[in-house]
């Protein structure tokens, strides 16, 4: 099993994760959830707030700036490469899933300490799609009206008076810093409280993506002491002799588990060995790093203007010819 995969969640849902919004926040969330192995779909209505930007000059990694169309294509390409399905459609409603779906509905309650006990969601779209999902991530800046049926007390909306009229809008403080909400399984990735820059939205999405993954790990029985998730790749040569030994990892996991972890021996061994496999597979040989580097560069070229590539190729060829002539 690869480091970016995990055993599938229960099959009575169409999707593990539905993300509403395909901008920086939504795509960033999806990259983390899909890389872990959660079946993720991103619904993008095609009107992300970033598309109102004329030209983006402060997104890290693009020294001369990046046009929004290219960045948007790169984000969607990345999400799809990670394993997301990106669907151009508008989500019109998200409703609690009625209890009783599947034979084990009573065991399908989701949400951690911050959430309630919803058993999943039904997502309806403008084009007539109906999708059931274990978790939903709101990553849009529009009014959040599609979530109105999820909170019995309507606490996610607040009212204010403007020019003599009483108006209602989504409460920007409804979600916690990690994206969790009072509704179990519902997360908010829109960076209301962190700012409105595209890079902030991507960072918020990453934070929420990690939260979703860690909640999924807890639900699968991973004890709290081991639920933290890290998605990064390291060089194999940095794996010291001590930590290259599976027994050392077994000892490490044993020492971190509380006495009341609640796992029977078979489940404990299964979980422990899978965790060790996942950690080992985050280490890459130098050859693997080289292969991924070349593959990454080629993927970037797919988003660069062909004329720019040809011009750069001619310049490189001329420089090489001049260098060889001088030798």
UniProtKB/TrEMBL annotation:
Xref: Pfam families: Pyr_redox_2
InterPro entries referenced in this protein's UniProt entry, alphabetically: FAD/NAD-bd_sf, FAD/NAD-binding_dom, Ferredoxin-NADP_redctase_2
Gene3D superfamilies cross-referenced by the UniProt entry: FAD/NAD(P)-binding domain
UniProt KW keywords: Flavoprotein, Oxidoreductase
Domain annotation FAD/NAD(P)-binding: ranges: 16-147
Taxonomy, superkingdom: Archaea
SUPFAM superfamilies associated with the record: Nucleotide-binding domain
Protein name: NAD(P)/FAD-dependent oxidoreductase
Taxonomic placement: Archaea, Methanobacteriati, Methanobacteriota, Stenosarchaea group, Halobacteria
């Amino acid at each position: 099993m690869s480091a970016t995969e995990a055993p599938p969640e229960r099959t009575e849902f169409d999707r593990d994760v539905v993300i509403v919004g395909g901008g920086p926040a939504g795509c960033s969330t999806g990259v983390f959830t899909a890389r872990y192995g959660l079946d993720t779909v991103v619904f993008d209505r095609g009107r992300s707030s970033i598309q109102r930007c004329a030209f983006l000059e402060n997104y890290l990694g693009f020294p001369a700036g990046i046009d929004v169309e290219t960045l948007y294509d790169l984000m969607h390409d990345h999400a799809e490469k990670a394993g997301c399905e990106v669907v151009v459609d508008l989500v019109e409603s998200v409703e609690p899933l009625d209890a009783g779906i599947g034979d084990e509905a009573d065991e399908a309650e989701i949400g951690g300490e911050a959430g309630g006990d919803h058993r999943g969601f039904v997502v309806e779209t403008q084009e007539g799609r109906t999708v059931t999902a274990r978790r939903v991530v709101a990553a849009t800046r529009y009014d959040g009206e599609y979530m109105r049926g999820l909170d019995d007390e309507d606490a996610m909306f607040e009212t204010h008076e403007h020019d003599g009229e009483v108006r209602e809008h989504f409460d920007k403080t409804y979600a916690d810093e990690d994206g969790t909400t009072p509704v179990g399984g519902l997360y908010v990735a829109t960076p209301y409280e962190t700012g409105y820059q595209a890079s902030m939205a991507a960072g918020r999405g990453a934070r929420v993506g990690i939260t979703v993954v860690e909640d999924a790990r807890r639900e699968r029985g991973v004890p709290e002491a081991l639920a933290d998730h890290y998605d990064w790749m390291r060089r194999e040569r940095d794996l010291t002799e001590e930590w290259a030994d599976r027994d050392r990892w077994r000892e490490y996991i044993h020492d971190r588990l509380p006495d009341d972890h609640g796992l029977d021996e078979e489940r404990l061994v299964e979980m422990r060995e899978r965790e060790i496999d996942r950690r080992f597979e985050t280490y890459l040989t130098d050859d693997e790093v080289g292969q991924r580097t070349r593959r990454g560069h080629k993927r970037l070229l797919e988003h660069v203007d062909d004329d720019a590539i040809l011009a750069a190729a001619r310049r490189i060829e001329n420089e090489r010819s001049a260098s060889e002539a001088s030798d």
